[in-house]
Amino acid sequence: MNQQTLSMRLERVAAHVPAGARLADIGSDHGYLPVALMRRGAIATAVAGEVALTPFHAAERTVRESSLEQRITVRLADGLAAIEAADRITAISICGMGGETIRDILDSGKAHLSGQERLILQPNGGEQPLRQWLMENDYRILCEELLRENRFDYEIIVAERAGPVTYSAEELYFGPLQMQARSPAFLAKWQRLLRVKHKTLAHFAKARQAVPEDKVEDVARQARWITELLA
Ligand code: SAM
Fold first, then answer.
1. Which of 34, 47, 67, 93 has the smallest number of CB atoms closer than 10 Å to its CB?
2. Domain map of the chain by residue range?
3. Among 26, 33, 104, 108, which residue has the most ligand 1 atoms within 8 Å of its CB, making it the best to mutate?
């Protein structure tokens, strides 16, 4: 992966960035996503935010080597603090982190959100708490994608603030649109996860020390939901 050739995962994220967007890529690491989009003429301007020094310098280097310093600003900042009102950001990508981390970045950075931005989120696990945050903050899920690369399942969630929206507990767990679409990748993922849940329950049953009742019930409920989904 580099500033020209993105991983399939980031390529799919890129596909959800509206043409001509003013993008903030938070946790940009090498800055590959904004640089690739800018080189393709797909976005108008970008901010690459990084909280850690090494990736911040890596992003600066990628931007410099592509001579894009006038179009992409690299900022050392925690989460959405990388965004300034004058940036007039229209899309925010936060990718390659746990769903809880993405949720925390959105929650602690609310003051930097105008409510007009499209969110393009690619959590590595923790999708349920992230969807919960979106629902509680009036974000409607417009699109969901699931892809498998290097034996990992990656989800992409695209959302916009659109007023109150209600998702059921199962929709928050599986993804409301994925539940409807039932793509082969989605069904394969949950078949794999059902095996994992059954193994976990078998371990619990054999464990020398009693596993707390609520923990067993939680995994059993997930196994039940997955079984119903696949039925
Ligand atoms: N977004 C890139 C991608 O999807 O390929 C890089 C993902 S990398 C695994 C996660 C990056 O997020 C790291 O470079 C890390 O320093 C950065 N990060 C984690 N928490 C952050 C925060 N609160 N604010 C900004 N960057 C953060």
1. 67
2. 8-166, 186-230
3. 26
Dist. CA 151–CA 3, nearest whole Å: 23
As a whole number of angstroms, the distance between CA 4 and CA 14 comes to: 12
Å from CA of 231 to ligand 1 middle? 38
In angstroms, rounded to a whole number, what is the distance separating the alpha carbons of residues 231 and 229? 6
With a Cβ cut-off of 6 Å, ligand 1 is lined by 10, 26-29, 49-52, 55, 78-79, 95-97, 101, 105
Is 146 in contact with 153 (CB distance < 8 Å)? Answer: yes
Using the atom order of ligand 1, give the atom closest to the CA of residue 101. 20
Q: Is the pLDDT of residue 1 over 80?
A: no
Name the band, by pLDDT with cuts 50, 70 and 90, for residue 3.
low
Q: Going by CATH, does the domain composed of 8-166 fall within 3.40.50.150? A: yes
- For residue 73, how far is the Cα from the chain centroid? 22
* 8 A C-beta contact, residue 160 and residue 118: yes
Nearest CA to ligand 1 atom 8: 96
* Residue 97 CA to ligand 1 centre (angstroms): 6
Give pLDDT tens digits for 89-100. Answer: 999 999 999 999
Q: What confidence tier does 61 reach under pLDDT thresholds 50, 70, 90? A: very high
For 106-138, what is each residue's pLDDT tens digit?
A: 999 999 999 999 999 999 999 999 999 999 999
Supply 81's token pair.
Answer: 């603090």
